């Protein structure tokens, strides 16, 4: 009954949620659509199915929202004046006679409220996906795969240098052309494609186990291989260094998922890897320097990478705002205050390029504690799930565990979770981990 609504919510989030803070209208569209779908879901879902959602899911949803909500509560001037890093705010408001007004913990309530709305959408996806059974989750993983493949259509337009085309989705930011698909950030697009590769293997595995596809070795290998050929090449064309380096991890995960059909021997594996390396080397030697593939590979030069300096400056700014933090979504104004004059350049620093460091700056110790609690619940979910779930569900659990690892690892050097699309993917993965026993027999069709 409710599965089509959940599938639609995931598809909308993935397709239109990749704009980031520079494109608020698509994000608002996603927030409204997900809210409407969640209202319909709440109306349609049977009471027994609603009650079956584990408490851990509600706890994670609460932890996602509690910090930005608390940051928006108005505080008396005696309290917020004493918070670290607020003297500049006090002095600025004193110029217009408003220094003694009640103010929230967040230094920019509008930005924090915008972040809260995005997190509410992710929390709704989390709860809705946790309510559906194993067959519904197969559809959800299939939707992730299909939307990622569809994102390659605008990607072709982008690589052909047509930024003004209606298929380009988001305007190019200048510089060398990189594949972005439905994401404004090519690094986020790489994560979407990597997760889709895992979903391809898990989806085909589920279809065979449910007798929708015939249990034939070359059919499974062929379908996964065709999807991989498109998705892996697209990952390289995004120019995402971390995305490219995570390709072996994802391929290893796929091999584990479809291992029963591979019947691998070490000799065959060695020959296959040698063949792939030879083809890659030959292709590299004949490519012109201006080709999209060469442009992507050239990004592995670290000569002009500013991330280490951004991390240093972000950590300094975070220390000035501890223990309370500056407020969710306030990285840019706070970073600009504390950025050393000698580090100022003609480039715009929009993120810390490390989600964990940015969380420390914006949410302080409370955000770190909330994140740590969520991580612990997910680890417990992985252990319990792999031990207690039926064999047919373990493929899904393994897939979403690796997907979260991909997003978590990339968060060390970028900001994938600031994309509503990837936040939604992370939410659906968490939902499957936190309710591993769900199956059609529990909830009906």
TrEMBL record:
Main localisation = membrane
* Key words of the record: Ligase, Membrane, Transmembrane, Transmembrane helix
Annotated TM spans: 27-44, 56-75, 110-132, 139-157, 218-237, 269-287, 363-383, 395-413
Gene Ontology MF terms in the entry: ligase activity
Query: Has UniProt tagged this entry with the keyword Membrane?
Result: yes
Q: Does the keyword Membrane apply?
A: yes
Please report a single Pfam family linked to this protein.
Wzy_C
Note the topology in the membrane: Multi-pass membrane protein
Report the leader peptide range. Answer: none
Subcellular location(s): the record lists: Membrane
In terms of domain of life, where is this protein from? Bacteria
Q: Which residues form the O-antigen ligase-related domain?
A: 229-371
PANTHER family, A to Z: EXOQ-LIKE PROTEIN, TEICHURONIC ACID BIOSYNTHESIS PROTEIN TUAE
Q: Give the protein's recorded name.
A: O-antigen ligase family protein
Which species is this record about?
Novosphingobium humi
Organism phylogeny = Bacteria, Pseudomonadati, Pseudomonadota, Alphaproteobacteria, Sphingomonadales
